[in-house]
Amino acid sequence: MSRDARSTSWKKLVYDVVNTLPRTFELKEVLARKDFFSRHYPENRFVDAKIRQSLQVLRDQRVLRFLGNGRYERLEVRPAFSPLIDPNTAMRFTSRTQASRVMLETWAELNLYCVNCAADELRRLTANTPVADFACDSCDDRFQIKSKDGRFTAKIVGAAYLPTIEAIRRGRLPEYVLVEYDPRFATVVFVDAIPGRLITPERVTPRKPLAATARRAGWQGCTIDVSELPRVRLVEPAGLERADVRKRWQAIAKPT
Length: 256
Ligand SMILES: [Zn+2]
Description:
alpha+beta; six-stranded mixed sheet; 12 strands; about 30% helix; about 25% strand
């Protein structure tokens, strides 16, 4: 067998293993399958080196992307999306408001993508970042997630009043992502995004400062009127294809 034919075979073997892994995976997950490779090449003492070399070939052929720190992304796989919210992510919170905020932020971290560029992921900002919740590392756009158990009305609850006005003045108000969910089914139903630059100071109304007895006494929030602003829909309940429903029905209802 020629050298070239061999390296093609290695590439094929590595490709087969990669195809069994999640969309993003680590080098060690491929190396862990050493037995599989050794079965095909029992005489080869350089299995690790061959795996790394084949991964580089797959990267050059744009099958994979290196993410750094031994992490890879499969470019042939479409990003996975799930409307399901995982209640386990918020078990340590006793306040319902805080628990649902954490659940929805975790959902957003796993499922939201940048609408402004081709990035498939957003990075969750630290909890004390004023005004924004998520950032895109590719285009530096920022996002604030608002979630509601049910439908939003014309007004959404904003962050602190003065920082919001200040962000508008500096042209740094984040994009608003409105997540409507149904807690009975732990499911996200509709998600819309509104460009932050369309929100003018006139749309922002200060709320009454928190009472002196409150933990954050004197803190002043705001509401933002988003009525009649253009928006894009990111998520809506998926309609099921009638033909597929009939096919699945046939599969279970037909006598065998
Ligand atoms: Zn982006």
